[in-house]
Amino acid sequence: MTTPVDDDGLKFSSFEAFRLINFTFIKACQTLTAPDLSPRDRAEKLMHYHGDLLAAYGPGVPLPFGEFRHKLHGPIDGLLPPWLDRSAFDDLDFPVVDAEGCVTDSAFDLQWETSQLHRILKRLRRIGRMRFTEEQLQDELDQDQMYEILKGRGDAQYVTDRTTLVECPAGTKAELGKRGLPLNAIGYYEPIPYHAIYRTWWFPCTVCHWPMKISKRAGAGRGYYRVACLYGRHADTGASFMFRPTTGDAPHLHPDSPDTPFPHEAALALRTSGTVPEAKPVEGHLALKRGVWRYTCVPGLYELRLHTVLRERLAAVVADLDEAVALWPMSDAYDHRIEVKSPDGSAHVFTVDVKDYTHARVLAESLDRNEGDKGGAEWLVVPDHRADQIPLLTVTCRKYGMRAATMTDFARLVCRSAGVVWG
């Protein structure tokens, strides 16, 4: 079996083929369960994606339409052709969509993260045409266009607007308008997604405030619903609730038992609101598109938390906090620039990018393709719950003069450099 060749005579790498297959698999799975498609439209879309998949497979790898439909109910790994090298990817034995037809967090992250890497490959190879359609690249295009919109308003306003996006991923048009976002940024808010709706209501996550996913469950002979954030860490640490079906009134949620952070990580842990969210009407409310929420709001919460805590800890020893502890400097060339002096008078400058990738190998490959951080950051910092990624990222970062650390380990180092006791 040979690697497929595109119309320009360029061979797909295993990565590029995986990127196309992964995207096509996700879109086809969504098509199977989308509630608003007619049978005719559903069949046409599935046949279209079947054709895309056969093109990515190349000659000599048959996949009848019936088998294609059957495989859509399984994990990504089951739809990959025999010739594709899986060694560059993490475990692929997870479902793409759940019982409600919602793309799972692992599948969504893998699609977005490999799309980012594909853009790097495309740029480096200077391919002269789009291999994928605009629809297929829409998530990452949304993300890039959002940044361009915000950057066009100046450095100081960028910080204000970016903070607003992080803190306000959902709301009414009136609420969003009062926050001062540019009108074209508000265009990236859309109606509440169907997977977050129970009858005419939705519930905001108690950590990030984006609509939580609602799924029907059965237990002890009675049906009930689980409401949880699509970002698993938020669900694990408090954004997870249950309710019984209702006939007329809005349901009242009951919290699950959340995990608690390790004591040494507590200072930087994201907090839930501590309250049980009330139902909000679907009518009149908007929420950020999923890709913008996942890769702007979710990591942005960690970036804001790290910035806030370092300002608090360093306030006693730094004269000008705004200058010394900068957030998203130079319109987000990287996420943090921190300059401190040690008790002996020596200066220490830390330039930092915070990355929250589910799939560490894809992040490592991106660093390799960029030959380090594209903005020039010398530190790669990941949330504390991604600590198992540090060994792989350390090896990769070392090649480019960078260092990798968890948020808490990094914050401890900064404070130690400034002569401040972390506690």
What is the beta-strand fraction?
5-15%
Shape annotation: globular
Q: Work out the radius of gyration.
A: 23 Å
Main β-sheet, spatial strand arrangement? 10-11-12-13-14
Question: Could you report the average pLDDT, rounded to the nearest whole number?
Answer: 83
The tally of domains stands at: 3
Major β-sheet profile: 5 strands, mixed
CA distance, first residue to last residue = 59 Å
Number of helices: 15
Succession of helices and strands: HHHHHHEHHEEEEHEEEEHHEHEEHEHEH
> Can you tell me the residue ranges where pLDDT is under 50 for at least 5 consecutive residues?
1-12, 124-137
**Class from secondary-structure proportions:** alpha+beta
Fraction of residues in H or I helices: 40-55%
List keywords for this structure.
423 residues, alpha+beta, 3 domains, 5-stranded mixed β-sheet, 4-stranded antiparallel β-sheet, 41% helix, disordered N terminus
